[in-house]
């Protein structure tokens, strides 16, 4: 299956040059917190000023601010308060430890009027509709089966859309049987299709098993958001969020869903639960410390005495153990360090190259083109695919919310930065790559058996867990699927990366392609950092080996030379840094 294409030079998809409905501009681009008109369309002069500032080194403080003067937006935050743009200057940074952000590019994002973006929106609608369905109910859910059928058809159309340079690609963006046929089933629905990721339950074991922080124990539980609490489905709240980046209580992302303003955001009891459904995953990725899940996973693997990669000399030394080099402190520092390097690379793509719209803004386009017209009100003709309002999921959401605005899990909607690429996914790709290079790809069953150790109750067998309804004692039942023996450490690490990346989509704030392509971007950043560090280690012989997200073997030798089997162009590119 293909990896993300290598791109020379910035490659935006052309949406900034698109003109629709006679004279409407910039419908495919990020414009949250800028001034908007009655339909939620950005004011063209303000967006043109934004482009000039971004591309010509101007002062981001001078970007125009949206207003709160619309009387439909009540209660209204005082004055002209807007959410702060999130770190646009990071896109102008450079780096010496990782690749210089100016030397790394991403392929074009799917165009706003494309079959791919429409198919991605259909998936986001299904994620929103099924957000509260506990995972153990999926096998018996008629809605889940409807989602599989509908997404198979729509993603199939997207894979064959030769008119869009940024279209979805089989293997890269979707689990697929071949270049034109998606492979959507119960084991691949709402997954990224990474190597080994489709074995076992949807949620990674690294999210489900408890974690020892030295003498402290961290239970993998969270305080859940209240079921059924979806936001920005009414036009006044949606327009307020577009103009200001704030919810009706003047909270921005990620200070939204704030209990002090409205207790209805959280569950009735405020009890902690283990991950049960997509809303719980969306909850995690709205409050995590970005590299948190992978730092936890590093501690878990160290505590479980997971086998080191075969090329790590400390796997074979009998008189020495690793510490500051190739040991625990080295790993914990490195799995954190690559996060900031990946962010610099992807933030340039966001602010200086692609500036792709967020899904909630696309929902506004659907509302303007399809719903207002059907209700006899004002309508717009943007040119979105005509089938969008006719899908099963659009019908369900229109009936439920009386709008086609995308139901978001967060009261202020998406954060105030562009959609493509994705920060969480880039960090996930980088951090997980470090962990796969460090530890051998053993059976997860074997790892759990070793993790039991001699000091635990011999009557309690270690278990691979099934996410879903929590048992009365707060634990999870064991996973008993026929593929449990095929679950591996690297597969569960890939799944962890996919859970975090697509968890953002489950919350409604990222497109699938934002995530799938940014995972590969982060992976490449980590490989380059490892390549540069390898010659600094005195231990010999040293070699790091693992499979990348596409299942192709990667090897980094003592000199820092990288080989990616079957990918000659990628191998040459990585060795340039």
Topology:
Blueprint: E1 19-20, E2 24-25, H1 44-55, H2 115-129, H3 142-159, E3 176-178, E4 181-182, H4 205-208, E5 211-213, E6 216-218, H5 235-244, H6 278-287, H7 292-303, H8 328-354, H9 359-374, H10 392-401, H11 423-438, H12 444-452, H13 489-507, H14 512-533, E7 544-547, E8 553-556, E9 562-564, H15 568-574
Antiparallel strand pairs: 1-2, 3-4, 5-6, 7-8, 8-9
Distinctive features:
two-stranded antiparallel ribbon, mainly alpha, 577 residues, 15 helices
Describe this entry's structure for a reader.
The strands form 4 sheets. The protein has a 3-stranded antiparallel β-sheet with strand order 7-8-9. A two-stranded antiparallel sheet has the order 1-2. The protein has a two-stranded antiparallel sheet with strand order 3-4. With 577 residues, the chain is mainly α. The radius of gyration is 23 Å and the shape is globular. It is built from 15 helices and 9 strands. The chain starts with 18 loop residues before the first strand and ends with a helix. The model has no long low-confidence stretch (mean pLDDT 92).
């Amino acid at each position: 299956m293909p990896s993300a294409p290598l791109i020379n030079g910035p490659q935006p998809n052309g949406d900034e040059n698109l003109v629709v409905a006679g004279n409407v501009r910039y419908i495919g681009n990020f414009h949250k917190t800028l001034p908007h008109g009655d339909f939620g369309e950005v004011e063209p002069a303000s967006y043109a000023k934004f482009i000039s500032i971004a591309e010509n080194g101007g002062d981001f403080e001078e970007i125009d601010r949206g207003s709160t003067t619309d009387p439909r937006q009540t209660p209204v935050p005082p004055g002209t308060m807007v959410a702060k743009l999130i770190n646009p200057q990071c896109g102008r940074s450079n780096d010496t430890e990782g690749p210089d952000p100016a030397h790394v590019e991403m392929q074009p994002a799917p165009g706003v009027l494309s079959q791919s973006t429409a198919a991605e929106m259909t998936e986001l609608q299904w994620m929103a509709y099924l957000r509260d369905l506990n995972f153990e109910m999926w096998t018996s859910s008629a809605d889940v089966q409807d989602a599989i059928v509908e997404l198979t058809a729509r993603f199939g159309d997207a894979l064959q859309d030769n008119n869009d340079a940024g279209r979805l690609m089989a293997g890269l963006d979707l689990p697929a049987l071949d270049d034109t046929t998606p492979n959507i089933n119960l084991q691949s629905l709402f997954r990224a299709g990474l190597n080994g990721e489709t074995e076992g339950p949807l949620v990674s074991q690294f999210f489900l098993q408890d974690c020892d922080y030295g003498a402290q124990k961290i239970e993998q539980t969270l305080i859940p958001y209240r079921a059924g609490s979806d936001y920005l489905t009414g036009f006044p709240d949606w327009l307020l969020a577009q103009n200001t980046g704030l919810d009706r209580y003047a909270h921005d992302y990620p200070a939204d869903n704030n209990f002090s303003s409205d207790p209805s955001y959280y569950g009735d009891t405020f009890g902690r639960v283990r991950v049960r459904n997509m809303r719980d995953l969306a909850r995690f990725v709205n409050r995590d410390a970005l590299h948190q899940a992978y730092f936890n996973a590093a501690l878990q693997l160290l505590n479980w005495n997971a086998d080191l990669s075969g090329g790590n000399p400390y796997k074979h030394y009998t008189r020495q153990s690793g510490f500051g080099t190739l040991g625990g402190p080295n790993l914990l520092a490195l799995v954190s360090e690559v996060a900031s390097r990946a962010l610099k690379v992807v933030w340039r793509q966001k602010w200086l190259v692609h500036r792709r719209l967020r899904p909630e803004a696309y929902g506004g386009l659907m509302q303007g083109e399809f719903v207002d017209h059907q209700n006899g009100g004002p309508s717009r003709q943007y040119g979105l695919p005509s089938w969008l309002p006719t899908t099963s999921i659009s019908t369900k959401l229109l009936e439920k919310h009386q709008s086609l605005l995308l139901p978001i899990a967060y009261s202020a909607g998406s954060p105030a930065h562009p959609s493509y690429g994705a920060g969480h996914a880039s960090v996930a790709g980088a951090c997980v790559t470090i962990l796969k290079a460090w530890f051998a790809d053993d059976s997860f069953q074997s790892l759990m058996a070793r993790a039991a150790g001699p000091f635990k109750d011999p009557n309690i067998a270690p278990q691979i867990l099934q996410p879903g309804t929590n048992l009365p004692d707060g634990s999870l039942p064991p996973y008993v699927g026929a593929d449990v023996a095929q679950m591996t450490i690297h597969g569960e690490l890939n799944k962890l990366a996919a859970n975090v990346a697509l968890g953002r989509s489950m919350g409604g704030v990222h497109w699938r392609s934002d995530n799938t392509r940014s995972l590969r971007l982060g992976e490449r950043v980590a490989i380059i950092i490892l390549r540069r560090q390898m010659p600094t280690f005195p231990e010999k012989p040293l070699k790091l080996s693992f499979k990348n997200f596409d299942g192709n073997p990667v090897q980094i030798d003592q000199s820092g030379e990288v080989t990616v089997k079957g990918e000659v162009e990628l191998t040459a590119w990585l060795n340039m840094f």
